[in-house]
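call fold target=Serine protease
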Amino acid sequence: MPTHKHVTLKSHHAKPYRKRHVGLFLISLIMFIVLAFALVSYRDRIISGLASSRTFVSNLFPQSDTYKVNISSSYGFNLMYDQKTFFASAISNDTGSLYIGSELSQQRPYTVVRVAPSFVAGANNITSSSSMTLTYRLGKGNANTAPEIAALKDGGIDPASVIRVATSTATIGGNSFQKYTWQSKVSSSVAPALIARFVTYTGLVNGNSFTISIKLGVTGADESAYQPVLDTVSFNNKVSVLDAPNSSVIAKAQASRSLLDTIMNTGIAAATANSVDLTGSEKVAALYSPAVVKLYNAYCMDISIDGTPFGTDFCSAASGSGFFVSQDGYLATNGHVASTTPQDVAISFAVSTYINNADPKSLNYLVNLTSLKPSDIPTNATAVQTLAMIVDALYKLDASRFSATNNVQNLLVQVSPKNPDINALLQDTKNRKTYSASDPSVLKAKLIAADYRAIDGYDGYRASDVAIIKVDGKNFPIVKLGTITSATQGSDLSIIGYPGNASNNGIVDSTSSSATLTTGKVSSIKNALGSSKKLIETDTTIGRGNSGGPAITNSGEVVGIATYTADGSGQGKGVFNYIRDIKDLTDLAAARNITFDTNSATQTAWQEGLANYYSSHYSYALKNFAVVEKLYPNDSKVAELTANAKKQIAAGKDVVDFPLIPVIIVGAVVLAGVGFGLFFIIRHHKKHVIYNAGVAQGTVQAVGTGVGKQTVAVLQHSPTVGPPIVTAPVATPTQTAPSSTLQPQDEPTITTVSAPGEPGGPEGTQVTEDSTSSPKVSEEEPVTNPWFRPDNTQDEPPKK
């Protein structure tokens, strides 16, 4: 059925478009483009600001999006391993440096590659004591050492302690290798079935020696667990020729080899995909350095045991690091930095004089107070075992039997870079006086709790060497305490502290100091010897004075306290460093009913200020920094950042907040303008088409003088085909035309009806429509139908 449509035509419909409609559309479109450009410019400005504000954050690491890591040596061999199953490390021959985890994806002249099972692989996989070492040498190796013996040594296996039980051949990377199976010569006297097993491969590749050593341990692990890695080993015919390493590189490689052995021969908490958080260590340092402080502990005392004088003038002084863990003044540090109990001092003095000076008097005196007898010490005990038994016996003495008299302890917390007057501190301590600091940034502290033994670790650690001290005050900046579980092997670790060489006064050699950042990686997680408590082994240097500082992951969580170094030189520059688990601190606090208040307004304002500073919202950062200066004026970084923020604002680089609501409103208005403009243009164009069709058919008067609006009824088929058909005008419809004058119902018709007496006049026309499509006409005027001739002979209807 045809449909009817009423259309009112006005004079402006004679034009194909109206300027106001096109203007609305164009203006709205331009505003939309300008808005989009402004948004893009705002985004670019933020990105540019981020880059300039974070120039000091250089320690960013890529995230690994795959579990497969390809290790490529420029010496011509390659292998691949799955990080979900294995963890790997390698030594580069050009620098002697150790590389681990995702660092191995870059090609280097690796000569030693170690692969070990990831601890997270599960109990069904090979044990954590197992490992595989691949070693490459230019040439055929040492002519005086048999290849199979060289392979044992390459894997850190003592050839004198094993026997060969089988020999065979194998193909690796398309090359023939000799395979040897070994086991330990002597089994444990306690458990004879515990026999260690090993497998080695030796071969020549392109004229160069290549060995593979697999440690299988005593658990019955099978070398087939490493077959997926062995299957990926390949060799290139072309080998890069590199200069031989010098002596310093060789020495560093040896140290790296030792570290590599340490990594792989301990229980590992490895990262599954070795993903690294993108927060750089420098940003972590900026965030938490205000909470890290320098500590001074100077004391003098006379000691009595059971009321009997043991000695006089036991004096000492040292410095270390600590960090606020509660906004009301609680700090964490090492026990050896802050604890000075008379029992610790007496035992330490007695042992040190015996070991260092061969003077046994003080030690014998203390031993006689215990129940320890010579018969209690086994005849085959080593000197270390004997000393450990003596120390344990001494610490079993009741601590109340030791008393300090004529004593003073000056435990100070330095919360600004300016050091206290060291000479005055030492002199006051020697004179048994409490040090009076003229600088308000040097705070007096007192020891609240400690888990510490001055002599510990001979045959295991009995104490955790952590301490809690307190200063008066509030609104101190604080660190965020985490858990050791986030310190996975290979993850980045930062230590903030106050390292420094001792001067003649035993503490410092300068008038000021500032927190120093040292970075490294987690080597492994271990149990402390003789204890179930955890230690983090790291290559992050713990120098002198760093003791007691926080060890922080790149996610910003403190996982431990820097405690031990094992370089043997006493200079704090060793490879092996150990961090006490932060749980030791929280356990100590819980045991002493100490609650840490972590709601620090200073730290909140500082963090918000840094966040605004990094995102170039310098105006907001200034407001945050002003809060920090008011609450904690000792923050040494806030003045520097404030000055830089003002400089950036003056340079026009301040980024204001994104005006979300105004942008939404403006965007909605602009889009509405575009939409309405387009709607009006289309609607006008449709009426313009009808106007042209009506004018062409003579049923619509062309625009001219005295011509007003004209309303037409459009009869159009659906779908629309061709232009609308406009019929001749008709009178006001009041009666139904005879059926003989009806138009065929299968053709579209537009009927224009003029008002009585004013056809096409200014008042326009009126159109009515019947549901049967039969037009009604007025009695005053006859029906005129262009489909019929004047002589009533029917003409052909118009074509569609």
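return ok
Residues 660-697 form the longest helix (38 residues). The longest strand covers residues 308-324.
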